[in-house]
Amino acid sequence: MTTSGRAACVIGWPIGHSRSPLIHNYWLKTYRIAGEYRREAVQPVDFGAFVQSLAAHGYVGANVTVPHKETALALSQPDDRARAVGAANTLWFDGVLRSTNTDVEGFLDNLTACAPDWRRDVKKAVVLGSGGAARAVVYGLLKRGVAHIVVANRTPARASALRERFGAGVEPTPWDARNAVLADAAILVNTTTLGMHGQPDLDLDVGQLPRHAVVADLVYVPLLTPLIRTAKARGLATADGLGMLMHQAVGGFSLWFGKKPEVTAELRALLEADLALPPAGQSE
C-alpha cells in the first residue's frame, strides 16, 4: 500500500470542533507519511452524495460522526462489527466502499490500558445511555465475556431495544433505578452527554460501587468530568473519554495509511493542551 499523498477526513454536522485532525496529522508527521486528514462539514441531506464521491474529493476513506453513523452503515458494505452495532464510524475503499466501527476497539483498548485487570472477575456491568456509543460498548463487553449488562436510559424503549439487538445478557432498567443497580457492578460506563460542558451533571451515587469497580466516561470535554473526579476521589480505577478517542482512531489510520500507530503520552499531552483552550463542544 502506497501512502504518497493520501488523504482522509472526518465527516459530521457540525464538525468544526473535532479533535480527530490533531490525532491523525500528528501520526502522519510522526511516521513521516505523505498525507493529510481534514474536516468536512456535510449536512445530512448532502451526506449520501458526498460519501458516494469520496474518491472524487481525493479521499481514500473517512471517519463518520454525528449525525451520519447509521446512514454510513446503509451506504456501505459493513463488516460484522458495524452490522452488529448498527452504526459505522470508519469508511475505506477495497474495490467497494466498506465500513467498520472502531468505537468498539477504542473503548476496549482504552479500558485495558487504564485497568489491565478489568476482566479478572466481571460478572456485571452497568451502561448509562442507549445510543450508538452504548451499542458499541455493550457489543464489546459481550464479546469479552461479560455475561450481564444492565442498561439504564431515560427512554425505557431505547434501553429495551438493546436487549432486542444483543440478547438476554442485556437487562434494561429504568433511569431512576440507576443507583440501585451499582452495588455489584464491576464496570460502570457513561455513554450519555451528562457531565459534558453545557450539559447537566450526571446525578449518580458512585459510593454504591464496590471497591474493585472500574468507571469509564466517554465524555472528554471537560477532560476530568464530575463522574471521573468522584470515582478517582474514591480510589476507583478510571478510563476517560480522551483515551477512547485516541484508541478508536488507530483502526482508521491503519486502513488508510498502512501503518498501525501508537497511542502515546506525547499525543495525549497535545490533545490535553488543545482541550485546555476555551471549550466549544465534543465531537470525534
Q: Give the low-pLDDT segments.
A: 279-283
Strand content: 15-25%
CATH class of the largest domain: Alpha Beta
Strand order of the largest sheet: 2-1-3-5-6-4
Number of domains: 2
CATH fold descriptor of the largest domain: Rossmann fold
- The CATH homologous superfamily of the largest domain is termed NAD(P)-binding Rossmann-like Domain
Shape: globular
What brief labels describe this structure?
disordered C terminus, 12 strands, 19% strand, Rossmann fold, six-stranded mixed beta sheet, 284 residues, six-stranded parallel beta sheet, 10 helices, alpha/beta
In short:
The protein is of the alpha/beta class and 284 residues long. The protein is 36% helix and 19% strand. The strands form two sheets. The protein has a six-stranded mixed β-sheet with strand order 2-1-3-5-6-4. A six-stranded parallel β-sheet has the order 9-8-7-10-11-12, sandwiched between helices.
Set down the secondary structure blueprint.
Elements: E1 6-12, H1 20-30, E2 35-41, H2 44-52, E3 61-64, H3 69-74, E4 77-78, H4 80-85, E5 90-93, E6 97-100, H5 103-114, E7 125-128, H6 132-143, E8 149-153, H7 156-166, E9 170-174, E10 187-190, E11 214-217, H8 226-233, E12 237-239, H9 241-257, H10 265-275
